[in-house]
Amino acid sequence: STRLEGLQQLHLCVRTDGFWKDLYDLRSQDQPGIVPRALDELFSIKRRLEKLQTFTVSFQCYMVELYLDKLQDLLVKDQPGTQRPKLELREDPDSGMIHILNVTTHPVNSIEEARDIYNFGVQQRKTSSTAMNDTSSRSHFVFTLVVQTYNKTTN
């Protein structure tokens, strides 16, 4: 389907422990999980819509983790002597959509670019050794792809 017009928000939530990590893993190209397949489909829809020359479609992404009850921006490059901006959740009163103030967003023009951004964010996550896993995550994270469409015919 090419029905991105009118879509306001789509969330794909996947547990990320044990076996379920394979479902979202963007790093495995021979057995892609749900997220890489969803990205493939979104970029395929983008190509089909833009071929009609009546739509423009753009993607942006951000990645945050919840660690010790605080939201952390995983796409901010730490620089000595600087503090990360404080992230705050806000609801848009008109649309009801939830936004994160001060989060770093990146334009995404290809699946490869999404994969690179995702991998950078994963490397920024808080991890620690446990009896079951040498690099167990100590946080929950959200990778968000924001889809913006514009219908040139109907404005």
Number of β-strand runs: 8
Helical percentage: 10-25%
Content-based structural category? alpha+beta
Tally the helices.
Answer: 3
Question: Which radius of gyration do the C-alpha atoms yield?
Answer: 17 Å
What string gives the helices and strands in order? HHEEEEEHEEE
Model regions low in confidence, pLDDT < 50 over at least 5 residues: 14-20
> Which outline best applies?
globular
Biggest sheet character:
4 strands, antiparallel
Q: N- to C-terminal separation?
A: 21 Å
Approximately what portion of the residues adopt beta-strand conformation? 25-35%
- Rounded mean pLDDT is 76
How is this fold's topology laid out?
Elements: H1 21-24, H2 34-51, E1 55-67, E2 70-73, E3 88-91, E4 98-101, E5 106-108, H3 111-123, E6 127-128, E7 136-137, E8 140-151
Antiparallel strand pairs: 1-2, 1-5, 1-8, 3-4, 6-7
Task: Offer a quick outline of the entry.
Helix content is 23%, strand content 28%. It contains three helices and eight strands; from the N terminus they run H-H-E-E-E-E-E-H-E-E-E.
Describe the protein.
The strands form 3 sheets. Strands 1, 2, 5 and 8 form a 4-stranded antiparallel β-sheet that branches. A two-stranded antiparallel ribbon has the order 3-4. Strands 6-7 form a two-stranded antiparallel sheet. The protein has 3 helices and 8 strands, in the order ααβββββαβββ. The longest helix is centred in the N-terminal third of the chain and has 18 residues, at 34-51. Strand 3 (88-91) and strand 4 form a beta hairpin. The two termini are 21 Å apart. The model is unreliable at 14-20 (pLDDT under 50). It is of the alpha+beta class. The radius of gyration is 17 Å and the shape is globular.
